Amino acid sequence: MNKIFICIPIFCLLLIGCSRTTIIDDVKIIQSIGYDIENNEIIGTASYPVYVESIQESHPRKLFTAESKTTTGVFTSFTKQTADEIDMSQLGSVVIGDAFAKNGISDLLVNLNSDPNIGTNSTLIISKKTASELLEETMNYPPYFLSSVLDQSMENGNVPLTNLHTISNQYYRESQDMYIPKMEITNEGLIVGDGVGIFKNDKLSVSLDNRETFLLKMFVDKSVYNSTYEVTTSDNIDLLAKIISNKIKSSVNNSPGVNYKFNLKVYLKEKTTKLSVSDITNRITKEIETSLEKDLLNLLEKLKNENVDPVGIGELYRVSQRNWEKNEFYREIYPNIKFNIEANVNIVNTGAAE
Amino acid sequence: MVSSKDNSKHEFKNIDELFSYYSQSSDFSCLNISERLSLNIAYFNSLVDEKIIQEHVSNPILRNHEDISNLKDILKIIPIKDTKISSDIQEISEKIIQGSAFIYINKAMNMGIIINSLTISTGYREQNDAENEYSVIGPKVGFVEDIDTNLRLLRKSLNIPNLKFEETFVGTTSNTRVVIAYLEGIINPEHINTARQRIKDLDYDLICDSSLLDQLITDNSTTPFPLLLTTERVDRAAYCLINGQLAILCDGSPYVINAPTSIFDFFVSPEDYLLPWVLGTFFRLIRFLGVFFSISATPIYVAVLTYHIAIIPKDMLGPIIDSRVNVPFPPLIEALFLEVIIELLREAGARLPTKVGQTLGIVGGIVIGQAAVEAALTSNILLIIVALSALASFTTPTFKMSNTIRFLRFPLIILASIWGGLGLVAGIIILCTHTLRLKSFGMPYLAPLYPFRYSEFTDGFVRFSLPYIKKRRSIFRPLVQSRFNVNGRKKDIGDDFNNE
């Protein structure tokens, strides 16, 4: 007994040497990493902050760039460029160049998932220009600008919720296709969100614009709050409907057909003073409903024609059919599905601020 | 009696031998009162109040010179209690050394009168403001060094006949008077037996303070946790007695030992009961928060900065790295350095005279702290954390527990630096297991958390309104469960309170 009590602390002491420390100021904390492809070479770009004595000032950030044949290979080149260890545990966003996305991102996703240091709430972004250009542009902005812009617009804007977790889920599940938000640099040098890119398997195939992105969000997000939808009424009044809550009911049948039923509560904004109360309760509600139904249906038809399924129609079928088979479904059933959409809009408030 | 164990104690055959031995000390006096009666008196003048001898012994004897023919006549005229004739040499020698005067006619008779004339409270403090367990409101009376005063204070605050004092003498050399106080009929006799037994079995030479006694009779002497509650507040000791615990008083010590205890007793301040229960509860919860913060804040800092960068919120990365970027040490050295500085300040503050101590606190706290940050020896954020956790540790109302809490931080810091969060968890598990195994006078230390007693949480983390704290803690097995009747509630079974 006594021997054990002596041995345990001794072994513990010996094991102290085996622990690998990552002391916070002795590592390069990568904030975002970008991938491009050029002549079959993967170009990795990573931004990290440089901390100096000055307290409470914006920190200059720098970029690593490296070329490699593989996505993890770029890190080998990164380590050659720095005196400190590279730490990925605070990774905010992964930027994928347009060309890289079209070339397939399965390797990248597998690698991101296999690194336990990378949090699954880091975001993936497709850059319309190359990833390195986007990252270079973010040098002028505060740290974690890309991921915070995206987080903010997922919460209050029209971008559907995505992060490494949901994207991996969509990647590994057979009944839904991935969608990753897009960003671009405007001519004035601003970084703005610009729709989403939809993947077929692991390759970027379709891009949705901002309006379609909102419609996609209506289908895929559990809570849609503060998202806005613009409607032009029959008498040419432009209205803005701000969504407070959204409840979806969906059902499938084997004809094949899918029914969606939306229950929406909205605020009306813009030019509401020109409308009378009876107008709002009867005509406007009806017009918003029909316009929304038409738009949602158009989106589903467009996705159907492109043979991509970010909405998860396949998932609706998979959960109701025992021997669901991916290839068979997308080849034979999906192109023939008839969609039926019913929107029920309830205008709870007009004009008043939030 | 302890004397049987003591080898250095002399066995005297007769008074002559006794006196020749005692007179080797310069403070032993042997005087002749009356030539005619050849009446002599012997005493240690360091122990005896010579005024008593003068007024109540010599003067009456000289005045009634004629009536005295033998010792019994003297006994009649001396107005002092506990005066008796004895011929037992051992008793005489013991009484003299305990502060009695001895009157004898002839040494050869081996007989004389023992007169208790011990000086009362000379060299002792008159009062104690309970400064170490200070409360802003409520009584500020504390125990003093004189045990008789302490017993009087207890007797005055619990004025019922079943408050019993049981006296023994402890310490082979110091022969210190120790009193076990308890409320008979309420306390479980098991506890009294335990106390009696442990005090009886004690073999130690010098008992100069109750804290020493505390360590000698405690259940586990290798734990950093205090298992017996020592307090200098009269109200606190009285509250413990009411709750069916016993109090051990020790002569020469202003601290009273309360036993058995549970860990919650150490976080209870008398002020909790003096404020409205909402405030009392709030302050108590703040105190528990302080304990938690004090133990874990620095270890968590060390673990996170050494291993778990990922859990730092993104907005805090900048400030934390900024403050650390010039520090050349790993977080462990940085943290230990600051913690040791705080401990040094505390230790120095305790040793220095009050007025200097305050100045040193300011100099140490502000100047050293600021200089250490500017010299890039520590980071700003750690300075704040360490200072806050030191502050938080002082919120614990009992000094012994606050020492323990300050101590516990160090092993946890080292564990956190060795294995990060894993080490921290390991340390906390060891801590929990350890406290779970502890016992105070055989009673579980972690009660009422373990064993779990739901009804006793009326006075646990939350201090309920006073009428709701009507039960004594069942874990201490008191003979009477309820402390008082609310709205003429029926008597408890086994209530022999009135059978006395």
Helices, strands, pairings?
The complex is a heterodimer of chains A (354) and B (500).
Chain A: H1 2-15, E1 27-29, E2 32-38, E3 41-49, E4 61-68, H2 73-80, E5 85-87, E6 93-97, H3 98-103, H4 106-114, E7 123-127, H5 131-138, H6 145-156, H7 164-172, E8 179-185, E9 191-200, E10 203-208, H8 210-220, E11 228-232, E12 238-253, E13 257-269, H9 277-306, H10 313-318, H11 326-333, E14 338-350
Parallel strand pairs in A: 1-5, 2-6, 6-7, 7-8, 13-14
Antiparallel strand pairs in A: 2-3, 3-4, 8-9, 9-10, 11-12, 12-13
Chain B: H1 15-22, E1 28-34, E2 39-44, H2 50-63, H3 71-77, E3 84-86, H4 89-97, E4 100-104, E5 112-116, H5 147-157, E6 163-170, E7 176-183, H6 189-200, H7 210-217, E8 229-231, H8 234-242, E9 246-250, E10 256-259, H9 270-274, H10 277-306, H11 314-324, H12 331-351, H13 354-374, H14 380-393, H15 399-437, E11 439-440, E12 443-444
Antiparallel strand pairs in B: 1-2, 2-4, 3-5, 4-5, 6-7, 7-9, 8-10, 9-10, 11-12
Number of domains of chain A: 2
Order of helices and strands of chain A: HEEEEHEEHHEHHHEEEHEEEHHHE
Taking the alpha carbons of the first and last residues of chain A, their distance comes to 69 Å
Gyration radius of chain A, rounded: 25 Å
- Oligomeric description of these chains: heterodimer
Q: List the secondary-structure elements of chain B in sequence, H or E.
A: HEEHHEHEEHEEHHEHEEHHHHHHHEE
